[in-house]
Amino acid sequence: MQQHIPVLLKETLEILSPQAGDRILDVTLGLGGHSEALLEAAGKAGSLVALDADMENIAIAKENLKKFGSRVTILHSNFSELPNCLPEDQRQFDIILADLGLSSPHIDDPTRGFTFRTDAPLDMRFDRSSGMTAAMLLASLDEEKLRKIFWEFGELPKVRPLVTEIVARRTENPIRSSSDLTDAAKVVYGYKSPQMLPQLFQALRMAVNREREALGNLLAAIPFLLAPGGRCAVIAYHSIEDTLVKTAFRSLAADEKDLLTGSISKKSEFVLLTRKPIAASEQEIQKNPRSRSARLRAIAKRTEYTDHRTASC
Length: 313
Ligand SMILES: C[S@@+](CC[C@H](N)C(=O)[O-])C[C@H]1O[C@@H](n2cnc3c(N)ncnc32)[C@H](O)[C@@H]1O
Description:
Layout: H1 9-16, E1 23-26, H2 33-41, E2 47-52, H3 55-64, E3 72-76, E4 93-99, H4 104-108, H5 134-140, H6 143-154, H7 159-172, H8 178-189, H9 193-208, H10 211-225, E5 226-236, H11 239-252, E6 256-257, E7 264-266, E8 270-272, H12 282-287, E9 295-301, H13 307-312
Helix pairs in contact: 6-7, 6-9, 7-8, 8-9, 10-11
The structure holds S-adenosylmethionine.
């Protein structure tokens, strides 16, 4: 039985504060843990539209959310396609949630190639029905593009020798499996290579799934998808994503100021619900180590009903 423990669940529910009849959009359905809790809290009139790029996760989530019947609409889609992937009559939401990155089945299933802990073909796609696998990227990208990936997404040292090693190896034999890649890393990083593998695999996964680009598109769509009074939370798991979310939310919530006097000339339509990101408690980290790097940020769209939130943040 595939399981995924929803991260920061209590905090997500608190900050998104589901109300009876809320329309919920979960753009990273996973196995449906957050969706289920939000929908339960929104009562019998609440509804959910949820998407995921991963068909296998969708199949499990469908089972898990079966009890809600027609209140749930599940779409196989990438959130970078928002808002166009949504039904035309469902484009305004009271709650939007994005819980980014990997789910437990991605790590636990050795055939997905996300982890360096087991030897498997280097796939790493969330959506196995389209796009290039990690092995294809390693085989086809030129040295400069590979260096950019490892530098920007992995912030790895010794990127130049690493790419030289990968390119030398691929001319002999394609780099097909996680052990092919870890062998190349061992040559470059020596005894430090176990410390580098998480960043190396993260960088490749981000490139395969175009994660930075997808998050940028999602953050651009959120303001239009939030109904007046709506709340949106994003849970990020590394600093590149968290910085993008922080910058987008701060800029949305920035008031316009008079250039001469510096006084506020127009209040923003949005309000930050988190000045600092919310992290998991020690207790949660002990139960679910994956929550260690989670950072939750949230924003609300103003209405007269959300003014109490302004006062509290
Ligand atoms: C951390 S898991 C979500 C877990 C979920 N909150 C739960 O409680 O089960 C992230 C999910 O988002 C999906 N995902 C990641 N990037 C995506 C994207 N750009 N578009 C759609 N789904 C994406 C992954 O396939 C994965 O199932």
